[in-house]
Design a protein that fits this description.
The protein is 47% helix and 12% strand. The protein is α/β, with parallel strands linked by helices and 188 residues long. It has one domain: Rossmann fold (3-Layer(aba) Sandwich), CATH 3.40.50.150. The structure holds S-adenosylmethionine. This is Methyltransferase type 11 domain-containing protein.
Length: 188
Amino acid sequence: MEMSFLVILLRLCFQILALPVYLLWFLGIWDPICKKAFPYFMVFFSVHYNSKMSAKKKELFNNLSDFASPSGALTILEIGTGTGTNFQFYPTGSKVICTDPNPNFRKFLDKNLSENPQVKLERCIVTAAEDLHQIPDASVDVVVCTLVLCSVKSIEGVLREVLRVLRRVLVPPLNIELTLITLTYLTE
Ligand SMILES: C[S@@+](CC[C@H](N)C(=O)[O-])C[C@H]1O[C@@H](n2cnc3c(N)ncnc32)[C@H](O)[C@@H]1O
């Protein structure tokens, strides 16, 4: 009896605390607030994340130049670019096409571009990675995607678009899981 009373009390407390969020969501304001606030969180988070992942990212992005087109130009499409935290790992002369469905990242992206003059912005497109129709078939050398696939609505849709826009598809021996996923989609 005491236990169930406690459960009801805790549930009530939680509902009262969550009431402002429900209200904002009901009024259609919650989503825009999150979209505005998220870039600020990512700026803070990226500093800590990159300090832990810097060595791994350096290793992963180390051979990006090997994927350059025969003319020597390297066009990178980054999906879910966010603040552009990966620009620091891109080689000199890279041209980058940024895509993200959240336009509120733009000022942070511009800051990262000005801090990384070795990277030139080719285009910035506000779109989800499931729909990259503004990017022609076989037009980019590399697609970069970090911490994004957990947010997308359709991983399959994203991978299909990635395969469409890549100039040539190589399966790097990064890790077995990634290789298997890529091969599964390639052979479908
Ligand atoms: C956790 S952040 C990662 C940002 C950046 N890639 C990084 O490594 O710091 C997730 C990013 O994915 C974006 N995103 C969410 N849904 C997406 C979708 N369907 N297609 C592309 N990007 C998406 C978000 O707007 C956000 O910028």
